[in-house]
Design a protein that fits this description.
Structural class: alpha+beta
CATH topology: Deoxyribonuclease I, Chain A
Oligomer: single chain
Number of helices: 5
Helix content: 10-25%
CATH superfamily: Endonuclease/exonuclease/phosphatase
Largest sheet: 6 strands, mixed
Length: about 280
């Protein structure tokens, strides 16, 4: 099974490109972030014509997560339990929850597509929200692993955290800013503390996943590594390959992020339909 994650930065602007990539790379399941549309606005027809079913979670023109899969998706979950909400200047128990998390189960593998809050600036209310969001997700993830330790589980998406200095092109330029602050990095490490690992880095030790559109960041390779597939022990042990698809930042109207993919050594229901090779 080939599983991938991609912050598409508006699926309605890039649907054809995403579908072409899915087919060309033989991807079975794609988790998307920043779809920036409601489910009824998602360009489902293009995906279905290519053999993919879509599950989407979006509330407006911001945020939004989705899955496209050639395999049946079960246990579709929008938002995780106790997921915090955010609205600037709004307090109380009725703070709206944003469309930033969605889980599906595909052939026994539990996958979450996540768009972690940006944080905006250290000290901003959105920064506090980001840390709370990550802490609550870690608590839920620990419960999920404890309840089903043998089920492969992956949290994948745009984490908006650069865990190591080498994950940004110039650490000094980021001093005092979000994505590299110690509280954010500690929040990321908390997932490692409950047993998750970055399953891509051991196989692809270097490389960025995001380049800003401004100031020729991509031609200068001034990027960041902020998109990750964090897998449980049961998930990590079946990973056989991984890739950061840098070329998807090139060409016409690319997203500012590129896909990250992993291959899993699993028998899937698609295997029966594929020709035998001797």
């Amino acid at each position: 099974m080939r599983v991938a994650s991609w912050n598409v930065n508006s699926i309605r602007s890039r649907a054809s490109r995403v579908v072409d990539w899915l087919v060309g790379e033989d991807v079975d399941v794609l988790g998307m972030q920043e779809i920036k549309c409601k489910p009824e606005q998602f360009p489902v027809d293009l995906f279905e014509a290519a053999g993919y079913t879509v599950e989407a979670h979006g509330l407006n023109q911001w945020n939004g997560v989705a899955f496209a899969s050639r395999l049946p998706m079960e246990d579709v979950t929008r938002d995780f339990p106790t997921q915090p909400g955010f609205l600037k200047g709004h307090e109380g128990d009725d703070v709206p929850v944003e469309a930033r998390a969605m889980g599906v189960t595909v052939d026994g593998v539990r996958l979450w597509s996540l768009y972690v809050p940006n944080g905006r600036a250290v000290g901003d209310p959105h920064y506090t929200y980001k840390l709370d969001w990550l802490a609550r997700l870690a608590a839920r993830t620990e419960e999920w692993i404890a309840a089903a330790p043998d089920q492969p589980l992956a949290l994948m998406g745009d984490w908006n955290v650069a865990p190591f200095d080498e994950d940004v092109w110039d650490r000094a330029l980021f001093e005092g800013h979000t994505h590299v602050s110690e509280p954010e990095r500690a929040a990321f490490r908390a997932f490692e503390g409950i047993g998750l690992t970055d399953v891509v880095r051991p196989l692809v030790p270097t490389g960025y996943t995001y380049w800003d559109y401004k100031q020729l960041r991509f031609p200068r390779n001034e990027g960041m590594r902020i998109d990750f597939v964090m897998g449980s022990p049961a998930f990590a042990e079946v990973v056989t390959a991984a890739a950061i698809h840098r070329n998807e930042r090139k060409g016409d109207a690319p997203s500012d992020h590129v896909p990250v993919s992993v291959d899993l050594d699993l028998d899937t229901s698609l295997d029966d339909d594929r020709p035998m090779i001797f």
